[in-house]
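**Backbone description:**
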Amino acid sequence: MEDNADERQLSLLLDQTLWMSRSMNFADEKLLTGQLQETKDKGKCRRRKSLSDKSDFPLYWKVVKVERLENPGLWNQYNHRREMIYHSHGYTYFRPIVKLPGSSGPVQTTESVPRESPLRRQIYPFEANEHYLFHGTKQENIKNIMNTGLDSRLTSDKAMLGQGIYFAESPTKADQYTDNKHQRTSGEKTMVLVRVVLGNPFINTSSDPDKFKRPPCKRCFKDLCSCDHPHHFDSVIDDAGRIFREFVVYDGSMCYPEYFITYNRV
């Protein structure tokens, strides 16, 4: 009976298709807009200074439009990687983020969405630790992301957790990366709501973490280990008591940039 259940679950992961629609219906757009503000409010950082640039962030955003990406090539690559993560765990459920040692709580983007909503039904938080997370980027990068996805090779190796692709459960954090932190600008901005497979993440609780090139070894906790241990974590979560948690993957196939949210700061 258990084997049959595993086969059915694997079939669900493999057979899930991308809804090929060029625009969202009103109900879905309203839901996503509501999630954006609710997640922002839950971050408890409204009108709070950023530690990095001391900028004062707005209370609200006015969403101009929400677009869903239709890129079958990127989707198939992501869907295959998600299945491989599930397979590597023996087709069993992953421990929820909230129950991992060092974790400060559940992923707020998932917690804030009702279980019966389309956004919640389309992800697999138990089977693959798959969650929707926010990613902020400058406007000039949007077309490239739509065409080729997010690529860790184009990121800085000086970032806090190394050369990876960074996400946040708080859109306030993502908003910080949509323009120059030394010269904030007005006008339309775009952040991305991304599907991310976290699998079995390493929880960083250090105030001075290593700069990884890939997720660390499960035994020595180094990315370039010499202990001959074949198993590494799948991703990294920074949970060291900073204002915002950050979630990092080091392979672009572990994330799919699905919703592009154009907005104005108010």
Residues 26-42 form the longest helix (17 residues). The longest strand covers residues 255-265. The chain is about 25% helix and 20% strand.
